[in-house]
Amino acid sequence: MEDPTSPDDQTDEVTQTDTEVSLDEVDRGVLFVLQRDARNITIQEIADEVEVSATTVRNRIDRLENTGAIEGYAPQINYERAGFPLRLLFICSADPDIRNQTAQDCLDVEGIINVNELVTSERNLHVQAVATSTRDLTRMTEELNGHGLVIHSSEIITNHYSQPWGHFESEEHSD
Questions:
Q1: pLDDT, tens digit, for every residue of 12-52?
Q2: For residue 36, how many other CB atoms are within 10 A of its CB?
Q3: Whose CA, among 34, 61, 118, 163, lies 20 to 30 Å from 70?
């Protein structure tokens, strides 16, 4: 893919509104490659795959980070191998009026690694945790209840699968 502008002329390529960043084909290509494995790829390898210069890739990544389209880079941890054999999903309900604050407060509970807010009024928080024993589970359950959550169920997660979202893949590279 040809890069139609020089890196300095690309300031209008990504525009941010209150909630959305506009992406062009180069941005989508960079995001797709980063989703696959951001840790083990160089800027030059991304540039080769997206068919633009390394400078363009670096500028695009900087801009995507600055506009919030890229929020960070996190390792994918195998918690079982790291000594935390239990990975759990708590299905909870929180008061919708304070759901956002409650979700953030849950992250203060030792062992909680991820909290997802849902739009629904019931079962509107999914809380992921890691633990080493049932004692940890009991403690976390008590602390989550202390934050005003109603826990509908707690499930042991056996596997997790993910893939890069295909929308970011370039049309010419999706064959």
A1: 444 444 568 889 999 999 999 998 889 899 999 999 999 99
A2: 13
A3: 118
Q: Which of 73, 97, 125 is the last residue of a domain?
A: 73
At 46 the pLDDT is 96
Alpha-carbon torsion (167, 171, 172, 175), positive or negative: positive
The total number of structural domains that make up the chain: 2
- pLDDT value at residue 13: 45
Sequence letter at residue 69: A
User: Which range, of 10-14, 25-29, 85-89, 133-137, averages the lowest pLDDT?
Assistant: 10-14
At 63, give phi and psi (nearest 5°): -65, -40
Q: Closest Cα partner for 136 from 80, 82, 84?
A: 84
Return d(Cα 156, Cα 129) in angstroms, integer: 10
User: From the centroid of its chain, how far is CA 47?
Assistant: 23
Domain assignment present for residue 169? The answer is no
Residue 112: its H or E element: strand 112-117
Do 91 and 134 share a domain, yes or no?
yes
Joined tokens for residue 74: 């996190």
- Domain of residue 131: give its range: 86-156
pTM over 0.90: no
